[in-house]
């Protein structure tokens, strides 16, 4: 694997197309810039001066269309948006009430709106690039870091909110109008939600919504039909754990996976079954299998980070043939599961906690970053440990979409790497 030099930038993020990587660069310890590099050779293509900057947390967020780049300055509650290929000046600047505080920001799929999530679950403000006032406001979201889901066709937004001491799922259309309020069964304590992917013959409908309860509360999964009137409840897996932590869809759109709270890995396969009213929705039939209940001893590990490490990770390979998962109890282990055989094919036990992993876009190749400086590459034939000289403290690894470039990002720098496939 060939590595570029290290680039002194903070918070490096790949564009959705994989063509650029953007990061924050401070010149002369005074002026802050957004530096945009090419992923092909690491060349600096654009240098965008930030109008105002202060101490505190910042984040770069790419628009889905690759045209716009947003910088969120959470300390100042200010947001800058660039059309970086046409001008080095922001085309949009938004300032929120700094006393309320901002928790996160995310783009809408149309790349013309972005959502600002205020702290303390106060509200979510929806801004349009050419407007001076919020276009819509969503009050009382249940969470600030989850509970938001866009549909696969980008036409719908589902938000988990609290209304009269109960959880409610509010569905908005692309014009930010409320089109539906879905109430789960009484006493439900929902943890998160996702849309079901579209299947044939269902593209004219709003897809069904899956929501699941907090893992310490129960093991129920709720599947809401498109009309919101009917709901199927999946439960009865208490013998495997006390609930679900996360549910994801494969890129093929026909398999969902979940991690159970007590560290058992459960796989759900789309098969025929009367889960919801099939005359209304054909996207949500399930059957559950226990993939593995390991019989060998694994060494537990604690992160050296002072802040909480987001150890819970689960991701399908691009061809949906494998699942990679890291659980909270064993943050130093990566479980790799063969989907077709329903078996664990590898457990990558590291000396330190796993910080990030990423599947290649084409080949079943997994790259893992830990608290060590090496990067680890797994494929079905085996695993390699590769020293990389450019980033001392890797925090994030990501394959660039559409090419073979690997981003390795640390606390103060990043580098790019290109694998030599002849050695794999």
UniProtKB/TrEMBL annotation:
What are the boundaries of the signal sequence?
none
InterPro entries assigned to the protein according to its UniProt record, in alphabetical order: Centrosome-WD_assoc, WD40/YVTN_repeat-like_dom_sf
Q: Which GO terms describe its biological process?
A: microtubule anchoring at mitotic spindle pole body
Task: Please give the superkingdom of this protein's source.
Answer: Eukaryota
Q: Which GO terms describe its cellular component?
A: microtubule organizing center; MWP complex
PANTHER family linked: WD REPEAT PROTEIN 8-RELATED, WD REPEAT-CONTAINING PROTEIN WRAP73
Q: What is this protein called?
A: WD repeat-containing protein WRAP73
Report the source organism.
Paramicrosporidium saccamoebae
